[in-house]
Structures are given as C-alpha cells and as structure tokens.
C-alpha cells in the first residue's frame, strides 16, 4: 500500500552502453505502439473479435486486434498498455480497439477510464459519444454515462477537447462536463483523490473470526470465505454469489470489505452499519479508507478488535508526515492485531511489512512465514517476500515472488515495482521500466512510485519525462524527501549544480518527516545518504572542502553506511596529488574506499576505483559487464589513462582497474611514470555474510616532483621508485542486523622504495678525538636509499548503532620486517682523502610490531546535536632509525 561533476568524459563505449539502455526502453514502447496489450485483470474482462457478437474471457499479455471490443464486468477492473500509455478500465466499461493508423483514434464506449499518457503529444485521439480528446502528455479520467453524457477530468498537463461546436482547451486540474443538449460546463478540480478513488489499492483488514456470520451464511459464502482466508481478495469477491443480497449486518460488513478490494468505496460505505455491535469492524473499514486517501479520521472508541488494530496501523502510517512517532505506533498497532487474533494472516503480513521497514529482517521473516502459512495466496505478503529476497540479493527468487504476487493481484503496485526493479537488475531494462510505469499508473497518488519512475526515465536518458515525473512526485507529497533526492541527483547529472544543492538540502530538512516506513535508525541512514550525495554535488561545484565536511557528517550519521564512506573517499580523492608524489590523503582515501566496498552489498557498491556512482540506491543496478575509460593527453606530454572493467552477476561482483600516468614535466627532471592496478572481488556467501578480496600492484618512477617556491631549487638528479608487488587484503563482513556489523580484515603489505640523488647536500659534523663536535658544514654527496617492507595485518571491528547512540570499537595487530640499505658515495674532491669508499654504508633488518585498540562513542541528546568521545591504545616497536641518513640498527618502542 505504501512503500514508501567532476563530470567525466567517458569513452564512446561507456556512453554507448547508456544509449543502449535508453534505446531499449524506447524500442520496447515502439514495438507495442500499434497494439493494445492487456497488462492486468481484476475480476472479469472479456473481448469480442471484430464483427462477432460473442464474448470470450480475456487474459494478461493478450494482444488485441483492430476492431476488437473490450469490456469489464461488475466489480472488475483492468489495465492495458497502448504504446507509452497505460490505461485503466473501471467496472462496466467498454472500448473499441483502434486501427493502427499513423494517429489512431480509440473509441471509448461506456464506463470510467483512467489514462496515464507518456507518449509523444498528439500520437492518438480518444473519442467519446460527445467529444474527442487530443492527447498531449497528460493524466486524465473520462466517465461516460449510459446516455452518452461525458465527464473529462484533467489531473495534470493539458488537453484539447473537440465537441461538435467548439474546441475547449483544458490545463492543470480542470473538469469538463458534456451532456446532450446542454452547454459544456468547465469547473476546477478541488479533490483529485475523489476522481481516482476507484483506482486506489485497499488492503484487507477484516478478521472474519470477529464477524458473527451464522451457519447458513457461512455455508452460502463458503467458497468466498475460503478464498478470503487464503488471502486472495479478488477470488473472494469473484466467489461471492452473484446478485446475492446480504442477510445480516455482519455479511454487509464482509461484502463492503470485498468491494474495497476493487475500489468500490462509495458502494462499500453505503452498506456499512452506522451503529450497533458491528460498528467496530465497520469503523475499521472507514479508517482504512481514510488512510488510503490520506484523510483525517477520528475514532469513536479505542481499538479493541484485531480488525481495528490492523486498520489503525495503516492509518497511523498515513499520518507519519505529521507525527514523528507514528511509525513506531503503527508497528505497535500491528503487534496488537496479531496479539488479538493469532491466526489472522493479514495482520501477520502487516507486522512483517513493518518489521522489515524498520530493518528487523529476522522478525520480519518469522512474521512473513506465519502470514504465508495462514494466507498462502496473500499478494501483499508474496510481494514482501520478494523484497526480502531482493534484500538478500537472491534476485531470481525475488523475481518469482513478485510474479506470483502480480498473478494473484494485478492491481498491487508493489508487485509491479518489485518485479520492475528485479528485471532491471537482471539486465532487462526495457521490461523493468515498463513495470515501473505500470506501478505508477496503478497507484497514481503515490509519490514514491513517481520518484522511481522519474529515476527510471533518467537512467534511460529521457530527461523530459524524468523531470516531469519528479516534479509530479514533489507535487503529490512535497514532504517526502525521496522526490527531492532524486530531483537533486537528476539535476546534478544535467550539471545544474546550484539547483541540485537546493533540492538536496530540502531533502535533508524533510528527512525526519518522510512518509515512508522509517525507524529512527533508518532515518539516520537516510541523513547519511543525503549528506553523502550533497558532498558529491559540492564537489562538482568545486567546493572540495565543503564536500569533505558534508561527507564526514554522513559517516558520523551512520558509520555503517557504505554510501557515506564512498562519498568521503570520493571527496578525499579530489584532494589527492594527481602525481601520487604527495601522499597526504592516500591513506584516508584508501581506508574510506575499502570500508565502502566492504560494507556495501554485492552489486550495490562501487568496487571500481574509477566509475562514478551518482547515488546510494542499488535498486537500479543490473547484472552484466561494464567498461569505462577516460583518456587525457596534453600538448606538454602529459598522458593519463583510467580504465575499468567490472561486472555484477547476482551474488558476485568484480572490478579490474588501471591507472596509468606519464608526465614529461614542466622543468628538468620533473618526469613521472606510474602504473597502478587494482583487482577486487566480492562474494555474498549468505544473506548476512560477504567476503572481499583486494589486490593492488604499483610500479612508480619519478624525478623531482616536489613543489618549490623557487623552481631553481629543484634537484636535477633526484630519482624515486616504488613497487608494490602486490598488496593483498581479504575481508569479511557479517551483518547481524542493519544496526550491528562485524568487520574482519587481514592482509599482507609488500612494498619497496628506492631513491637516489647526486651531489645532495648533507650535514657534515667534525669531531675531535674525544667525540665532541667542533665544526659543521653542508657538503654534496651522492646518496642511495632502499627500503623493503613486509607487513602482515589483521583487524577486527564491531559497530553498534542504537537510537541516538553509536558505538564503534576494535583492535588491530600488525607484525613484519623492515629491511633498509643506504650509502653515501662520491665525496667532494677536496675531502675525498678523508673518507673511505663508500663514505658511509648501512644495511639493517629489523622487526616491527604494533598493537592497537580503539573505541568511539557518539551520543545525540537532542536532534542534530552530537557528542563524540573516543579512547585509543597504541603500542608499537620499530627500528630506531630506518628513514634518515645515516641509518642504524636497534629498536624503539612507544
């Protein structure tokens, strides 16, 4: 019900992959543009071939032919696709399938129709007995009475309505009433929800054990009640005896609950009792209607029955935008519902839904298992199972669950949403985007579905539709930060940096009041996402220092958030020395990148060092290979090559990254040649365990790349070489729950550094026979230095996150060996007789050992005020002098 740059110039191949994705969506729409296809059926849908008088049952994925007729039965609904338009038929509605002309005309015969039009303007027309409508990218409802009177309600966009006498242009939210023999009447639409209430989704809330149906009623309704107990609302309505009049108030309540399943709100309300003992379950249905339509509801008495508690749970969720505690209350109400009726399958499904939304996967699975055991044909429960499988990266199994949910209830938008995301993950971009289009058309009042559809259009390269959907998402629920987030990301990709910053800052401000299922812990995660993305946008605006600050805030909000660490790594990456000669930011960058890759789910992070990721969500990641390349060549001889080949296949991700640099320099001995190679593999072992392997190779050769105020001070003979052959790390991540993580890291560092210089000025001290220094001077010597490090490291880190409290602690042990060799040669000619050859030589091998413990506690006594404390212990033993000439043996410790 609710579901809540630096812009890099990539190679033609990478760009082509994006074009292919967008082209797949457009091709899919084009393939279907001249056929009307049945997408979903709720109840009874029939078709009649052109020229025939007989009617046959229709079926999903049916392609109708020109001249065919289509009609729905009583208490039935259907969804069809015609090119880039989704259409819905209400009960007792009929239309004629158009001829595939260049601009076809769809005759609407009778009933109520909702059109979700995303084709190019004026691609076809709609004809009613009273007028025809020129479609220009709009959403509207057309109601045709048996006598031909027509009401056209425009929900957004614009349309031209042609009558026999005039053309009337509608824009915004306007309604036009056309009646035989009367002038057209145009009025504003004050409440769009009333116009589309027949299209909204109403879940089941009635516990039939609380309805005192007598024996004869239960026998007459046996098939319907059996289907209801199985969780299949549409089948229960279909099995309800045709033309049966309820014999009791209890049966009227049951019938009203079934009518809501197909959006018959007015009919349901008309038969609900107003007083008496059965007013409680009737009030539960009224509260559900208020929840779905986001209206206020005032209880006449405290909830007591399981049906009441379940309806209360939905209602409380609908008030989450104005009550920060509403979601906790909604979860508590669902718990009360299962406590009041332990065999109430719909209540168990609702409890599972809320537990999962709070990140409590274990309790959610337990509740869902109970729900599916009690109501095996519950479409909502089946869709939730799909989302749980998807969270575990079991995409194939998730896809099966979503398809089962759709088969059980074509009108469940969550089923289409989930299947669309899985199809994109599997590489079926076009099919996935069409599923997202269907989801938005089924529940057009849900801003979240518009946000996802907008993101889908953006991923497909359709900026116009992306902007349109994101704008609608903001209009539908301006307090939901999801639309603002996606709008900001879309504007960032369009290089509209200032607007992107404004939208994302708005998203941050609205975060606490979002109308999705969110616990406080997940709200902190959302803050981290927004701060991380804001850091990215500030970086694109050239505000690197601000970017680092925002990214650091994101890590503070949620230390276990891979996106926060990723963007902090990206922010530090902007500060790294392009020549890799100054290593000031190398350690923090590498540490944050490693944390991001370790914490991210398979397919959800960015293993590649060079591929830009614009947002946190992994829902639009698809299986398959990827290739990216960036080449920079300058006339001064500088060449930079960044290349990545990466891929994700269900539970396995990998990347191969090359960073090559050649620079002739801008002064003598300022050249540089560097090759860095990263190989990264990540494997999901269980739903809670992932393993990561990282291998790095480096071959670095440089002249004097130090920075000087006076370039004449540069050293013409300085040479520096570094080799990492290789660095190997293995890591393991166990997620006990979304707020409890254990990280284990172990690896081997193998590094060699060499430098040499000629006529390098060295301090020369002259001592007397007693060892006292009586003179000093600086004299030129040739210098060579070699350092070899072999170090083994293991670290264990534990992360706990609670409401307003974060605790991170861990320990690290490192041990290895440092081998150092250095020499002075070629003394000044006047002093050569005073020295042997070499002048000085040292060759030592010493052990190094380090034991570290740390702990950091973050408290948030009030919103946005944090108190951070930390404690660290460090015990290290290392060679006394292995860096400075003249090197010497021995150990120091501290």
List keywords for this structure.
single chain, about 900 residues, alpha+beta, 17-stranded mixed β-sheet, twelve-stranded antiparallel β-sheet, disordered N terminus
Distance between the termini: 61 Å
Please report the number of helical segments.
24
Number of strands: 29
Helix % is 25-40%
Q: What integer value in Å does the Rg equal? A: 34 Å
- Low-confidence spans: pLDDT under 50, at least 5 residues? 1-32, 512-528, 612-619
Shape: elongated
Largest sheet: 17 strands, mixed
Q: On the 0-100 scale, what is the average pLDDT? A: 83
Residues in β-strands, percent: 25-35%
Fold topology:
Layout lengths: L11 H21 L3 E7 L2 E4 L7 E2 L5 E2 L4 E4 L4 E6 L2 E5 L4 E3 L8 E13 L7 E3 L4 E4 L3 E6 L5 E7 L1 E5 L4 E5 L2 E5 L6 E4 L3 H4 L19 H6 L1 H8 L3 H7 L9 H12 L4 H7 L7 H14 L13 H13 L7 H15 L4 H13 L3 H14 L4 H13 L3 H14 L4 H13 L3 H14 L4 H13 L3 H14 L4 H13 L3 H14 L9 H21 L3 H14 L4 H14 L10 H14 L24 E10 L5 E11 L2 E12 L8 E15 L2 E14 L16 E19 L2 E28 L5 E30 L2 E21 L14 E23 L2 E17 L6 E6 L1
Parallel strand pairs: 9-10
Antiparallel strand pairs: 1-4, 1-6, 2-3, 2-5, 5-8, 6-7, 7-9, 8-9, 9-12, 10-11, 11-14, 12-13, 13-16, 14-15, 16-17, 18-19, 19-20, 20-21, 21-22, 22-23, 23-24, 24-25, 25-26, 26-27, 27-28, 28-29
Helix pairs in contact: 1-16, 4-5, 6-7, 6-8, 8-9, 9-10, 10-11, 11-12, 11-13, 12-13, 13-14, 13-15, 14-15, 15-16, 16-17, 17-18, 17-19, 18-19, 19-20, 20-21, 21-22, 21-23, 22-23, 23-24
């Amino acid at each position: 019900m609710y579901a809540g740059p630096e812009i890099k110039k990539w190679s033609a191949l990478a760009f082509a992959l994006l074009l292919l994705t967008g082209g797949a969506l457009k091709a899919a729409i084009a393939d279907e543009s001249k056929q009307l296809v049945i997408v979903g059926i709720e109840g009874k849908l029939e078709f009649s071939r052109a020229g025939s008088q007989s009617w046959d049952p229709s079926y999903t994925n049916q392609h109708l032919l020109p001249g065919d007729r289509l009609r729905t039965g009583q208490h039935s609904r259907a969804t069809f696709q015609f090119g880039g338009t989704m259409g819905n038929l209400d009960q007792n509605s009929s239309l004629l399938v158009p001829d595939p002309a260049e601009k076809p005309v769809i005759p609407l015969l009778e009933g109520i129709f909702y059109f979700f039009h995303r084709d190019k303007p004026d691609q076809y027309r709609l004809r009613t007995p009273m007028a025809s409508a020129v479609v220009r990218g709009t959403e509207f409802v057309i109601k045709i009475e048996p006598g031909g009177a027509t009401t056209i309600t425009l929900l957004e966009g614009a349309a031209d309505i042609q009558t026999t006498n005039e053309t009337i242009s509608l824009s915004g939210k306007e309604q036009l009433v056309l009646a035989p023999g009367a002038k057209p009447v145009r009025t504003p639409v004050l409440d769009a929800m009333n116009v589309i209430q027949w299209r909204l989704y109403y879940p089941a809330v009635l516990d039939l054990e609380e309805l005192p149906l007598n024996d004869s009623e239960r026998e007459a309704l046996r098939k319907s009640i059996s289907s209801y107990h199985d969780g299949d609302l549409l089948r229960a309505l279909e099995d309800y005896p045709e033309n049966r009049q309820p014999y009791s108030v209890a049966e009227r309540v049951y019938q009203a609950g079934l009518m809501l399943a197909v959006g018959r709100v007015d009919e349901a309300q008309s038969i609900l009792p107003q007083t008496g003992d059965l007013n409680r379950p009737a009030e539960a249905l009224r509260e559900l209607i208020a929840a779905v339509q986001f209206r206020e509801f005032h209880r006449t008495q405290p909830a007591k029955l399981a049906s009441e508690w379940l309806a209360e749970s939905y209602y409380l969720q609908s008030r989450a935008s104005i009550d920060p505690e509403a979601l906790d209350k909604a979860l508590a109400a669902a718990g009360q519902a299962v406590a009041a009726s332990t065999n109430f399958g719909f209540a168990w499904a609702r409890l599972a839904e809320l537990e999962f939304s709070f990140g409590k996967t274990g309790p959610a699975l337990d509740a869902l298992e109970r729900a599916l055991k009690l109501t095996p044909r519950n479409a909502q429960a089946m869709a939730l199972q799909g989302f749980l499988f998807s969270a575990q990266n079991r995409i194939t199994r998730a896809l099966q669950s979503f398809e089962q949910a759709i088969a059980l209830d074509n009108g469940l938008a969550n089923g289409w949403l989930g299947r669309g995301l899985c199809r994109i993950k599997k590489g079926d971009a076009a099919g996935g985007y069409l599923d997202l289009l269907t989801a938005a058309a089924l529940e057009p009042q849900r801003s979240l579905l518009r946000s996802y559809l907008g993101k889908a259009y953006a991923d497909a390269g359709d900026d116009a539709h992306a902007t349109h959907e994101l704008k609608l998402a903001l209009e539908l629920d301006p307090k939901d930060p999801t639309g603002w987030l996606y709008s900001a990301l879309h504007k960032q990709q369009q290089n509209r940096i200032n607007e992107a910053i404004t939208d994302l800052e708005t998203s941050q401000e609205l975060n606490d009041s979002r109308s999705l299922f969110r616990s406080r812990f997940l709200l902190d995660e959302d803050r981290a996402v927004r701060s991380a993305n804001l850091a990215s946008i500030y970086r694109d605006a050239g505000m690197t220092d601000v970017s680092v600050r925002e990214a650091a805030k994101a890590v503070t909000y949620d230390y276990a958030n891979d996106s926060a660490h990723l963007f902090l790594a990206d922010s530090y990456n902007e500060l790294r020395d392009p020549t890799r000669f100054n290593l000031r930011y190398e350690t923090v960058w590498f540490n944050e990148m490693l944390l991001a890759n370790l914490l991210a789910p398979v397919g959800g992070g960015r293993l590649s060092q060079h591929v830009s990721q614009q947002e946190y969500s992994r829902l639009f990641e698809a299986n398959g290979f990827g290739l990216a390349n960036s080449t920079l060549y300058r006339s001064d001889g500088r060449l930079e090559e960044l290349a990545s080949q990466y891929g994700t296949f269900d539970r396995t991700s990998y990347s191969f990254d090359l960073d090559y640099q050649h620079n002739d320099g801008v002064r003598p001995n300022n050249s540089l040649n560097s090759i860095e190679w990263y190989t990264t593999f990540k494997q999901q072992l269980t739903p809670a365990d992932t393993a990561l392997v990282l291998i790095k190779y480096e071959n670095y050769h440089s002249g004097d790349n130090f920075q000087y105020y006076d370039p004449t001070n540069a050293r013409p003979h300085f040479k520096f070489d570094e080799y990492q052959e290789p660095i190997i790390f293995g890591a393991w991540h166990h997620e006990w729950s979304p707020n409890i993580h254990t990280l284990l890291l172990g690896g081997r560092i193998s590094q060699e550094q060499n430098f040499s210089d000629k006529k390098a000025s060295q301090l020369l001290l002259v001592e007397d026979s007693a060892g006292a220094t009586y003179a000093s001077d600086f004299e030129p010597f040739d210098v060579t230095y070699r350092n070899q490090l072999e170090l083994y490291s293991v670290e264990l880190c534990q992360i706990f996150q609670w409401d307003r409290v974060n605790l991170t602690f861990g320990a690290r042990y490192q041990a290895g060996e440092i081998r150092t060799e250095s020499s002075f040669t070629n003394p000044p000619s006047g002093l050569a007789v005073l020295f042997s050859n070499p002048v000085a030589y040292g060759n030592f091998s010493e052990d190094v050992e380090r034991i570290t413990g740390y702990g950091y506690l973050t408290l948030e006594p009030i919103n946005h005020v944090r108190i951070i404390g930390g404690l660290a212990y460090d015990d290290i033993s290392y060679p006394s002098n292995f860096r400075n000439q003249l090197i010497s043996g021995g150990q120091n410790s501290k």
